[in-house]
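Notes, Module 5: Reading structure tokens.

Key idea: the token line is not a picture. It is a compressed description, and you learn to read it the same way you learned to read a sequence, by spotting repeated patterns. We will look at two proteins. The first is printed below with its tokens.
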Amino acid sequence: MASLNTPMVGRQTEYEHLSSLLSADTGQALVIRGEAGLGKSALLGYVAEQASLQGYDCVRAVGVEAEWTTPFSGLHQLLDPLLQTCPAAAGAHRHLFDVIFGRELGEAPSLLAVGVATLDVLRAASSVTPLLVLLDDSQWLDTLSADVCGFVGRRLSGSNIKMVIAVRSDGIEPFDGAALPEICLTPLGDESARFLLKTHHPELDEETQRLVLEHAEGNPLALLELPHHISDTQQGSGGPSFLSTGDVPLPRRLEHMFASRVKQLMRTERDELLRAALDGLGSKKAPCPQESHYRMRSITGSLANGLLVIDPVTGEPAFRHPLVRSTLVQLATPNERRAAHADLAQIYPHDVERRAAHLAAATLDPDDDVARTLDDAARSATQRGSSATAVAWLTRAAELSEHAAERSRRLGDAAFIAGQAALMDQAQHILDSQRPVSGTDSPALVITSAYLGLYQHGDVRSTHRQVAAAAESLSVNSGAGSRELLTRLLNLLLVTSMYAGDSDAWQRTERIFEAVADRVDPLTTLCRDAVSDMARIGSNVSARLDRVLSDVTAMPPWDATFLTVAAYYADVLWRYRPHLERLVAREQNCGAVSNVMTLLHLVMLDQFASGDWTEAERTGRQVLDLTRTHGNELFRQRSKAHLGLLAAARGDVSQAREIGASVSAWCEPRGVGCLVETAKAIDMTASLSEGDYEAAYLSATSITSPGTFTPYAPQASRTLLDLVEAALHTGRKKEARLHALAARDAGLAERSPRLALLTWGTLAMTTEDESTAETLFARAEAGSSGSNFPFELARIQLAHGTRLRHGRNQRGAREILQRAAETFDRLGATPWARRAHTELRASGTGVPSFTNPQELTWQERRIADLAASGMTNRQIGERMFLSPRTVGSHLYHIFPKLGITSRAALRDALSRADDARTPAEHT
């Protein structure tokens, strides 16, 4: 450690930077980067000593490789002394820290909540005396702790806190993206290196000095330690020569140098140091007063030869440098390391994760007790936010399982968590390494294979066959432990069937459910009723969801996610929006990326349904970015499809159709029928948007026929309004009425609030009786669901207002059309807004006309000219080789573009449009 009286050579610039940080009148953070041996720890020692003289309190943590995978271990090292000595600092966050540090069970908090709580504790600790936070060897901090420290470091302005982070630049760099100020240490220049060497080793002759300077390469640690090594080598004490290692990197050569000293120790003392190194302690960090850890004994030889020093702050022995610790581990034989880990496991009887880590490293042969401990540790890691650690421990637990069934179950759990966390490469590795030679996967491995096949490749058909076969096989086995596995298979079968959108696949799924009816989890049955066929079996889903979704955050993540999917299909997702947002935060913290993508999809769909279209697009693009990062191709297509629907509703027809064509081209050959249907819905909405009602009708009827609702097709009931609207605009009043009556007879109004709105609205639009129509329109518009589905409500209001205007009830029409126009304007549904404003003008409201009508296509202009000349639709069709209905749909498209509502106004509108064109355009 550098002292104020013995300053480091060649680091004056860094000293000035650190002094400036301490004297600043506001909180600041600083990252010091550099390779091993350049003096990062010495600079931390310097700033700690200077801060002490200026009245600072100091807290510190040291990253340790042994704890790198343990969630929040670094944060525990940093904060626990404060929480023990100053309990008031924890304040309202006591439970949060007890959960993340494994003292209590509870819902894993979000990283944002942990960051805010950590900042609050540090601010409380610095309320009287300024506080210096030091993080050394930060490349070995666990990821969650590093993220929290980065969060805190960016928010120190206005506080009494300074933070200095030392990180090795040749290792893992968790603070790369932290956006904190940095200084990068470089090797000493020739003059400084020579001065340092002469100061500490004046006895060296010129030739030895030259060798040391040449091989130290300006590294201060090498300059200080290399002369001792040369002396030992010359005296024949053994060890590889530092100078004979050729192109080996300098840090590795320094390890060779420390190795020669380790080999001089007695066996018992080497064992002491090895235990300390493997425990991640004895590394210049202040121990928690109540923390049990291995305490080194009989270490006089290590202190004498410079492998250990006494930390002046704690009075505890500490390694001279982090490279000493890594050297000890590398030098030990496998048997020596296993024996040390076995000893260490005994000092953590109540710390399940640390005990598990040591037992896993100590155990060679299968051992069910150790496997169970690793199982418990994996559950703890999942709850505390480290899916990757849980996967590693479950995989190791499977290796140590004595029985094949437990081995298979643990591998399935590992692969399941890997799939939930979008760790597809790890899931694939588990599958490849554990797949039996016979080619017959266990049900647990089938789940892994199915996740990969479905989400990475969209292979719906073969995935469904694979999962269905495994579920059928397990249906005849009611042994212990099979229920959870069966539930996972059934849930995955539902998801696969949902994406397939295929009647045969769903019928096989239902047969499997019937075969295991007495063993199906009630939540799985509820999800089945919601996602399979709402029009047929989705009765009472909404009320059942209310009973189980009072607090989804108390459920396992996969159950909670699936239930929110069911809420979307039942059109009641808006009721659980606060729960949904908390779920997203929790799953992001727990690393369950697949769940996060599903939940964000649902957030987007709820934003779209509730009319927050700008946020819906932002959320959709966020999911799209996640799918690219994690290689989830199925979710990528799903994200694109949802964005395509949004574009179509806005009137971005070209973009919508391009997306729809792309989604269909990818999904159709893979059997992803659900998204193929969505692509058809995109085309249908785009056609409605541009007023091509004939094309819209054809798209709608490709999803479901008038008067029926195709089984197991979610879009079938959702296109109710679209089909009826397109049918009415193309003169198919009979088909429109038939479809509205089918919705009523199927009881769709009882299935969901949205379907109730659509059912009453379409019945009103298709009835001939004016009094009945008014009653039905009032019923549709008065329902509380209207505010949750403003786009559909405004379209029904547009139809209502148009009908009133044609019935010469201009005053009633204006009031309703005004509401519709305001909604369309707010949403950004431009084509519908244009129609609503056109109808408003026709009803006598002084609404400004569109001064810049959209340009007509060549075909539209030709049809408009012929219609203005007095030709009928049939005559125009014969002239242009179009059907009369197609001509009519084109005219419905043309009228809003020109700001008119009838053929009689065509001639004047075309004349005005021509007059508005520039001379160049006329030419």
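Here is the second protein, with the sequence above and the tokens below, as before.
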Amino acid sequence: MARLVEALNRFFGRVEIIALGLENERSAAEAALAKDMPLEAREHARTILSILPDSAVGLALWADAAEEAWLDQEVVTALSELAKRVPWRADVWLRLGRAGQRTGWDGARNALERAAAAPEERDAARLALLDLCDLDLAAGDPARAQRWLDRIPAPLSSAPDRDVALRRAECALAHGDLDGARAATEILGQPAVADGRAALVLARLALAEASAPAGSAAALPPGDVARVLDLGLRALVLDVPGAAELCAALVAASRDVLVVDRVRRVVRAAGALDEPTWAAAFAFAEGRRDDARQALARGLSAGDRTAAAALLRMAVETRDLGALDALAARASQGGAGAASAPLLPPDLVRLRDAAALSQAGGADGAARALDALDAVTGEGAAWAEDIRRSIVRAWLPPPEDTAAARDGAGARDASSTPRAGVAAWGEVLRELARTAKLLDRLDLLAATEALAVERERPLRAAVVGEFNAGKSTFLNALLGEDVAPTGVLPTTATLHWVAWAPDPFARIVVRGGQDRVVPHAALKDTLRALSAAGSKVSRVYIYAPIERLKRVEILDTPGFNAPDPDHIAEARRAFDEAHVAVWLLDAPQAMKESERRVLAEISALGVPVQILANKADRLKPDALETVLAHVRDSLAASAITSLTPPIAFSARLSLKGRLGDEAALAASGWAEVEALFAEQIVDASDALRERALRRKAGRIAAELAEAASARAAEDREAVRRARAAADRLRASAAYLRRERRNIAAVIDKALEPARRELAADLRPIAALPDERKRADPGIRAYVQERLVTRLSWPLSVEIARAAAEASVDAAARGARGVAEDTRGAAGSAAAPAEPSARAAAQVRAVLMGMVAVHDAPDELAARSIAGVVEAAIDAFAMALSAEAEVPAPAPASAAVEQRALALRAAFEAPAAPESA
């Protein structure tokens, strides 16, 4: 940068210096600077100032000499005084801001902002804007840093602005915007040998891409390690801030001896091997995690913020709660610069609290932990997801097989502790209901509430099979009473639900008609009468005081080969309601292709199936054994599993036997069926119900996860559009501020039609004396109202049109390296030509202020108001910036999605194999 004295000599002249005989001192000072003798130049400058204290030239000489002599405190003093003399000089403010940064002067940022606000000195303003961006990046505010970049005008040449592109990449990485970072680094290309900052950006991007969103070095593909290490070491040697942390992370995650040794040699040459960050990184690489933590703890105790950052990174990458505890303990003691920045970011504080709540156990602790995890984003997001999934997974322990359930029957009654293998249904159903409410899925909320009721009801066993397989006869034999109607064709066209009640009766649900309640003896006749009358029976509930029905309810289904599609649909509906299915085959024609198809469907739904071959009395023993072998082979070929190997029996003889015919009972094969039903269904009812509840709840969880993902995708797109719109508003505001003088000249001409209309409105008072116009408040109010009304809207529209053109211009600049949403989105969705209400109100306020202070506002209709238009443009730009900063409410859909996905994943986890 050129010396200040060279610029100010041309501006101020030397009359005073010559008059006071100080020209020799000035010449000697400039000659000393030219010979790189800053201390000698400083003495000559101080001599000038001792005689002429307010000399701008003398102050400039002092500032130049002190800066070259590295006397930064004197630079700040000299430039502070010089800025009072030439407050419009951006180069003075820029140098003052930079010197102030070096000395820690409180006014450094303000000086840079003064430099950035000087549109006429574009070079100095550009450098100030870059410095302000760097300040905010260092302070962890990439959004504000990005806004400084938006104010930098595009270069006049076709070459992209690499300085801007570099910082845009850094802002994008800080935001986690990998697409934006990639676009910006494409402009950078391959960094020069001495460009350590660009090398560090490229290395950080490679790490972030390797394992988004966590950015862990451990996930970097081996082939990319060498390239990233080269970039990182280049930045490290060039002493770029952040390079040591990146290289230490590479070392800590690496198990490659050559990589570790290469970095060790560089660190040893720098004499930094004993620094806590490096000691910990090499300990990690060698598998000495405890040593690594101790090294970082020592640095933390010594107040080393680098060690604190390394410990934080270690905690996140290795999921080490102990490291978070150490940081929290140190923060509570006020160590490591706690006053300047927290050792634990708020996200990780919430994560630590959530982990403690989940470890404490209990339903309330788990719920509070999940709520806390919902708010964790950024670098702790992946860790939060692990904790969330572990909490939800604990609700669904591997289910017991039926044998274990049978052996442990009654254990839940003997102890208040839930039996192993049983889901924490209170928490599961509460989470399902919460998610369904948040997604407005009332259908799934109702299904969840139905599951809560189902938990308290007996097991449901569906008796299924093709028409005329003897299902109702089997059901009557199972119950020991002739309860289910048989021998009546229409009765199999509907679902019969057999349940316990203290008195025997049946309730017939008629579609579109009144229910019928009848005794068992009248059930068949009533069904015949309804069929003859053409009434549609949708379901029959049969109640009986049979002890077995207290533990198992029976669903007697229509045949799958019935001619009416409604009957088949009703039979399939039983699958959703049943916990277990008993499939009856017609032994003489067992395992037809139609049966295999439906059995495969039931098996695919996860409903346990027991195969029974009915009508065994119609076959001879050899033929029956052949049939059973065929059934077993067909099941194996179709990958269908039966709870136990298929059993052959006769439902007809079984019913006779159960009603008193002992010979029929002995010949029926019922004893084996009875034992199977008792052991595999009744005694295992808890395990079968658990399996069915999980199947149904898992289906609900899958639907909720799909709905939550769809909602979250919509919200993410809405957020992306809102950010793009905000970026366009910022770009337009920056353009308006930057070009306001040129825009004002164009708009002033475009307002001619409005001014002619205004002149016509004011013509009646033109002939009035000036004293009357100034003294009459009514006339003055009329003039003010007409002027604001005629000019405010046209002026607002013209400024809006210029802002829209700025968006199109931003799109064109995108091809040369401006951020993407100013880059590409601007071209497809330019800022609207119609002003917003906020922007129009700001323009109106400027005009009202103008006419309020003008002695003769009616004269404004006949003169240029370019200065007022400039002020209106500034106000309009402020309104655009304010609109861009209005925070959009953060959608809760992301947290809902994560919890829904965690619950679905828990249901999809491999279950313990079911015992045969």
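Summary for the second protein:
- The mean pLDDT is 82.
- The beta strands are 459-465, 495-500, 505-510, 516-518, 537-544, 552-556, 580-586, 609-614, 647-648.
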